Design the sequence.
């Protein structure tokens, strides 16, 4: 349906699914209600350089009865902006 540099949005009735491209291939460890968005989400685990595990969202399931595509795109664009800001800080010469 819609994609950005860091996300995909697709229709999986009765949900619009927002998937973080940077987390594709990450094993789903749990299916929970996301605290920030209040929707079902798949989460996985990544480990930092100190070996500490962090739970991260992989995909979010937005019910089509409550969310429009425009609303999900707005959330996806926030994620996109955050990743672009991180990229600009860590790789200032890449575009």
Sequence:
């Amino acid at each position: 349906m819609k994609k950005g540099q860091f996300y995909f949005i697709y229709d999986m009735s009765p949900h619009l699914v927002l998937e973080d491209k940077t987390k594709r291939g990450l094993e789903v460890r749990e299916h929970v209600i996301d605290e920030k968005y209040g929707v079902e989400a798949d989460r996985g685990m990544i480990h930092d350089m100190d070996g500490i595990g962090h739970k991260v969202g992989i995909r979010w399931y937005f019910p089509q009865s409550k969310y429009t595509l425009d609303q999900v795109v707005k959330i996806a664009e926030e994620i996109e902006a955050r990743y672009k800001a991180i990229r600009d800080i860590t790789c200032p010469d890449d575009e």
Notes: The first strand starts at residue 2 and ends at 3. Residues 6 and 22 are 6 Å apart (CA to CA). The chain has a mean pLDDT of 92.
